[in-house]
Design goal:
single chain; 590 residues; ABC transporter transmembrane region fold; Rossmann fold; 2 domains; six-stranded mixed β-sheet; 18 helices
C-alpha cells in the first residue's frame, strides 16, 4: 500500500477542536469556575500553613495561641473543602463537554471520510481508516484533559506563586519567575524537536494496524496458501519499524526528563539558599521557608505531571494529525458548485465520446459512444479488461471522466448531485457485500422508509424469503461481517431483494446470478424479468447464456465498442461474440 508523508496540521487540529468546543459555551462556565476556585484554594493553603508554623515558633502554648492555631486550622480545612468542591464542579463540566465534543468529532470525521471517492477507499486499509476516526476523538479527550487538568491549573498556580513570593521577597519572586520562563521556553523548544519523532511513531502505528487488519481480513487466503510463516515475517518487519520509531520517541522523552531534573534541583537549592541569606538578615521567617517549600513542591509536582502529560499530549496531536490529513484532503469526486438533483423522465442513457484511464498508461475506455433508449435492456460483453465494469462505475459516478460526457435524459450527470444519480440506479454487484446487521435491515437499505411487509414482499420476489424463514431468528438474523454467515447465493438473493425494494428507473446487474445454483438461478431469472419491466437495464454478462433475451448486446474490446446487435445477429456476423459463445457453449462452461 503506497503511503505518502503526512503534513503537520497542528493549526488545523486546534481550529477543528475549537470549533467543536464553541458549540457548548455554557459548559465552559463550570470549567472556569472550578479552575479558578481550585487554584485560589491551593495558593491560599500555603499562606495559612505559613501562619500556622509561625504561630508555633513565636507563640507560647497558652489559650490565646491555641485559639489562633484553631482558627488557622479551620481556614485550612475550609480551603481543603473549597478545593474539593471546585474539583467536583470542574470534573462535572469536563465530562459533559468531552462526551459531547467527542461524539461530534466522530460524526464529523465519519461524515467527511465517507464522502471520499471510491478510489480513495480501495487505496487505504479499512482498519487503518477506522483507527484514524476513533483516535481523532480520543485525541481530543487527551488534549482537553491536559489543558484543563494540567496546563491551565499549572499556569494559574505558578503565576500566583510567583506573585505571592514576589510580595514576600522581590528577589526570590523574580528568581522563581525567571526560572519558570526558562523552563517553559525549554519545553516549547524540545517539543518542536521531538514532534517529528511522534508523528513517525503514529504513522508506524497506523501501518501496523493496517497490516494486522489486512492479514486478519484475508485469513482464509493465508490458510489456503500456507502463508502463515510469510505473514508472521511480514508483520514482524512492520512491528520492528514501529519498535524503532517508538524507541526513538521514548529516548527523546527520557533525555528531556534528565534535563528537567537538573532544572528542578537548581531552583530548589538556589531558592532555599537565598531564603537562608534573607533569614539571616531577619527578612524571612520559618513560616516563609514552609511557604517557599510548599510552592516549590507543588510546582515541581505540577511540572513533572505536565512533562508526563506532554508525551500523551504530543502523541494525541500526532494521532489527530493523521485524521486531519484526511479532513484537509479534498474529496476526489465532489459535487459541483450549484449541482442540482437528477430528474428522471424516461431513463435514456448516453455515453458521448467518453475517454477514461486510471493512469497515464493504456486508456480503459476510448471514444466510447453508447446510447440506451428508455426501457431498453442492454448487455455488455467482452473479455476481461474490456471496460465493462468501468462503464458501470462511470455511470454511478464512482469516477469522473476527463473527456466526454455521460447523460441521463439529456442531463450531464457531472452537473447533478451524486446522491440523486445513485438514487435513480439500482445496482446488484457480482459479489454483494452486506452489513453486519439483521437481514431485515440489509434488505430495507434499498428503501429505508419501507415497511416490514414491503421488505418481506421484496424478499419473496427475490426468492430469499424461503431460507430466511427457516432461520431461527428469521429476518432478525445478523449476517456477520460482509455477510459471511450466508452462502454466496443467499447474499446474491438478498442483494436482489434490496434492488427490488429500491425500484429505481435504471437497473444495473453485474452478472447478478453468477453465485446461484441452477434451481435458484431459474427462480431469480423470473424475479429479474419482473424487476426489469419498464426499466432501463444494463447487464454486465460473463455467462452469455443469461443475456440471450436482451434487446441489444454490446461487445467491448480494449475500451471500444466493436459490434452490437441481438444474440442471433451477432452469432451470424461472427467475430469476437461468436468466438466467446463458441467457447462457452462448446467447452466445459456449457
Amino acid at each position: 500500500m503506497q503511503r505518502t508523508a503526512l503534513k503537520n496540521h497542528t493549526g488545523a487540529i486546534f481550529r477543528c477542536y475549537i470549533r467543536a468546543v464553541r458549540k457548548y459555551p455554557w459548559l465552559l462556565v463550570p470549567l472556569c469556575i472550578g479552575a479558578l476556585g481550585l487554584q485560589a484554594s491551593e495558593l491560599a493553603y500555603p499562606l495559612y500553613l505559613r501562619r500556622f508554623f509561625n504561630l508555633l515558633v513565636i507563640s507560647k502554648p497558652d489559650a490565646a495561641a491555641v485559639h489562633q492555631l484553631l482558627q488557622t486550622l479551620g481556614m485550612i480545612a475550609l480551603l481543603a473543602f473549597s478545593s474539593w468542591a471546585s474539583r467536583r464542579i470542574q470534573i462535572a463540566g469536563l465530562l459533559h463537554l468531552a462526551s459531547r465534543v467527542m461524539r461530534d468529532l466522530t460524526a464529523t470525521a465519519f461524515d467527511y471520510l465517507i464522502g471520499h471517492s471510491y478510489d480513495f477507499f480501495i487505496s487505504h486499509f479499512a482498519g487503518s481508516l477506522t483507527h484514524r476516526v476513533t483516535r481523532f476523538s480520543r485525541a481530543f479527550e487527551t488534549i482537553l484533559d491536559a489543558v484543563i487538568l494540567q496546563f491551565l491549573p499549572t499556569l494559574l498556580f505558578v503565576t500566583g506563586a510567583v506573585i505571592i513570593l514576589f510580595m514576600r521577597n522581590h528577589t526570590l519572586g523574580i528568581a522563581l519567575g525567571i526560572w519558570v520562563i526558562c523552563f517553559v521556553a525549554f519545553q516549547i523548544f524540545v517539543a518542536q524537536l521531538r514532534q517529528p519523532l511522534r508523528r513517525a511513531r503514529a504513522e508506524a502505528d497506523s501501518t501496523l494496524t493496517g497490516t494486522l487488519a489486512d492479514a486478519i481480513s484475508n485469513h482464509m487466503t493465508i490458510a489456503l496458501f500456507s502463508g502463515t510463516s510469510h505473514e508472521n515475517s511480514r508483520l514482524y518487519e512492520v512491528a520492528e519499524r514501529w519498535r524503532k520509531a517508538t524507541l526513538r520517541s521514548w529516548n527523546a522523552d527520557e533525555l528531556i526528563w534528565a534535563c528537567l531534573g537538573l532544572f528542578m534541583i537548581g531552583i530548589n537549592v538556589g531558592l532555599l539558599y537565598g531564603a537562608m541569606i534573607f533569614w539571616q538578615r531577619g527578612m524571612l521567617t520559618v513560616g516563609d521557608f514552609v511557604l517557599i517549600q510548599a510552592y516549590l513542591i507543588t510546582t515541581f509536582g505540577r511540572l513533572v505531571e505536565i512533562n508526563r502529560e506532554l508525551r500523551r499530549f504530543h502523541d494525541a496531536f500526532a494521532e489527530a494529525n493523521e485524521m486531519v490529513d484526511m479532513l484537509e484532503m479534498p474529496h476526489g469526486i465532489p459535487d459541483r458548485m450549484g449541482a442540482t438533483p437528477l430528474v428522471i423522465r424516461a431513463g435514456e442513457i448516453a455515453f458521448k465520446n467518453v475517454n477514461f484511464y486510471f493512469n497515464s498508461g493504456r486508456p480503459v475506455l476510448e471514444h466510447l459512444d453508447l446510447s440506451i433508449r428508455s426501457s431498453e435492456k442492454v448487455a455488455l460483453v467482452g473479455p476481461s479488461g474490456a471496460g465493462k465494469s468501468t462503464v458501470v462505475k462511470l455511470l454511478l459516478r464512482l469516477y469522473d471522466i476527463p473527456k466526454g460526457s455521460i447523460e441521463i435524459d439529456g442531463q450531464d450527470i457531472s452537473h447533478a448531485t451524486q446522491a440523486s444519480v445513485r438514487n435513480m440506479i439500482s445496482f446488484v454487484p457480482q459479489e454483494p457485500v452486506l452489513f453486519h446487521r439483521s437481514l431485515m435491515e440489509n434488505i430495507r437499505y434499498g428503501r429505508r422508509d419501507a415497511k416490514d411487509e414491503e421488505v418481506i414482499e421484496a424478499a419473496k420476489q427475490a426468492h430469499c424469503h424461503e431460507f430466511i424463514a427457516s432461520l431461527p431468528e428469521g429476518y432478525e438474523t445478523f449476517v456477520g461481517e460482509r455477510g459471511v454467515k450466508l452462502s454466496g447465493g443467499e447474499r446474491q438473493r438478498v442483494a436482489i431483494a434490496r434492488a427490488i425494494l429500491k425500484n429505481s428507473p435504471i437497473l444495473v446487474l453485474d452478472e447478478a446470478t453468477s453465485s446461484l445454483d441452477s434451481e435458484s438461478e431459474a427462480l431469480i431469472q423470473d424475479a429479474l424479468e419482473t424487476l426489469m419491466t419498464g426499466k432501463t437495464v444494463i447487464v454486465i454478462a460473463h455467462r452469455l447464456s443469461t443475456i440471450m433475451k436482451m434487446d441489444r448486446i454490446v461487445v467491448l474490446e480494449n475500451g471500444r465498442i466493436i459490434s452490437e446487435g441481438t444474440h442471433d445477429e451477432l452469432i451470424k456476423a461472427g467475430g469476437l461474440y461468436q468466438k466467446l459463445w463458441s467457447i462457452q457453449a462448446g467447452g466445459f462452461l456449457s
